[in-house]
Specification:
Blueprint: H1 2-17, E1 35-36, E2 42-43, E3 46-50, E4 54-62, H2 68-81, E5 89-93, E6 106-112, E7 124-128, E8 132-141, H3 144-160, E9 163-165, E10 169-173, E11 178-179, E12 185-197
Antiparallel strand pairs: 1-2, 3-8, 4-6, 4-7, 5-6, 5-10, 8-12, 9-12, 10-12, 11-12
Helix pairs in contact: 1-2
């Protein structure tokens, strides 16, 4: 229960200090068709969105994702100590546990940073340069099969629509996760994958 409280407190702090966020202008672009489960529940849609590049305040991390609680706590404690305020909290994941040893995982926790701020170590100022992204807004259990299906859906959409991933995955926390009576966390997160057009398939050689 102490761990859940810390997660709650960390994201409440994030909401309190939120004062700026990247532009959210979306153009008319392909959108995945809505789908339903056997229970009639609507499966989240994948959208292609455009955005502007933005600076963010980051705490660089290495190793297991189990460090999220401590990472966000340190990020916001250091930010408050330095008088830095920004936007919604997110994680950026530079490689994947699917093909990288846990101890070599590289990831950031951070928030968007308004102009005029200059974070000092252990914080860093970085730039998100990706402007074309596949996006899926997921609401449900954090972790497990349901969230895994959401990741599968976004990557399937990318391939089926002639795109390929072109940068690290981002998760934007849209609200404070809340536990049920069993302590299982529920919440909303936007999964973002930068994309670019995939090169055309090479024509088969004519004999």
């Amino acid at each position: 229960m102490k761990k859940l409280y810390c997660i709650f407190l960390t994201l409440v702090v994030a909401a309190i200090v939120a004062a700026a966020s990247p532009a959210q202008n979306e153009c008319s672009v392909p959108v995945a068709q809505a789908d339903t489960t056997g229970r009639g529940e609507v499966v989240p849609q994948v959208e292609l969105k455009t955005d502007t590049a933005f600076a963010y305040c980051a705490l660089e991390m290495t190793g297991s994702y189990d460090q999220h609680e401590a990472a966000f706590g340190k990020l916001y404690q250091e930010a408050m100590n330095q008088g830095i305020y920004g936007g919604m909290p997110f994680g950026i994941y530079w490689n994947s546990p699917a093909n990288t040893p846990v101890e070599q995982l590289k990831w950031d926790v951070g928030f968007t940073l308004p102009p005029g701020n200059a974070p000092k170590p252990p914080l860093a100022i970085k730039k998100w340069d990706f402007t074309t992204m596949a996006s899926l807004k997921y609401r449900g259990v954090f972790g497990g099969e349901e969230m895994g299906n959401a990741y599968g859906r976004i990557y399937k959409w990318i391939g089926e629509n002639g795109y390929q991933p072109s940068g690290p995955m981002m998760e934007v926390f849209l609200n404070t996760p809340s536990p049920d009576e069993k302590g299982v966390l529920f919440g909303s997160v936007e999964i973002i994958v930068p994309v670019q057009k995939a090169p055309p398939a090479k024509d088969a050689k004519v004999k």
